[in-house]
Amino acid sequence: MRVNPSSVTGTARRAQIVAATIGAIAELGYRQATFARIAERAGLSSTRLISYHFAGKDDLIKAVIEDVYGELGGFMGERMREAAPGRAALEAFIRSLVEFIAGHEAQMQALMSVFLEHRFDDGSGSYDAATDEPRARAPLEELLTAGQECGELRDFDVFVMASTIQRALDGLPYLLRSAPGLDLDRYADELVTLFDLATRRSP
After folding, report:
1. The CATH number of the domain where 8 resides is what?
2. Per-residue model confidence as pLDDT tens digits over 150-176
3. In total, how many domains does the chain have?
4. Based on the domain organization, do 167 and 83 belong to the same domain?
């Protein structure tokens, strides 16, 4: 199949702008990450090049969110692919998410700033608990249900357990702001032990 060179160039340019936006927000904060700062960071001659590829700030921020979540999904999927249902899958879920957070500081800092400060033109926030939390929790609920069905995990309320695990993981980027030297390998070890003891079936 023949690929349109202009399409390839356009995709690369959009990715360049998104990466520059993530870096600018992580370093400067959301409000200071203006189009001028982003263009400078991306090595663009004019902010018009940003406007050419994105309809506005809202469109750009949506692309940033999609980019981070897309990379996170691919990262975790690769590390969980071989994990057996049950305890091994839960451990892989926890460790892969902590590993991603540890290795993608700029992306996580940018995402937090966006969630805390960005408002779309209609006044809504970038993070909608009513829709985003259930969507984020769904894979974990499926994982826990599969573990119960295969007999590795005990009988418990999947919603409550998934919500508790997800909150413990979602809070890590915020915790790193006040404790940047936190040992994340040990943090992952403790979470794995904690939730393994909470979910596994007694012998």
Report:
1. 1.10.10
2. 999 999 999 999 999 999 998 898 888
3. 2
4. yes
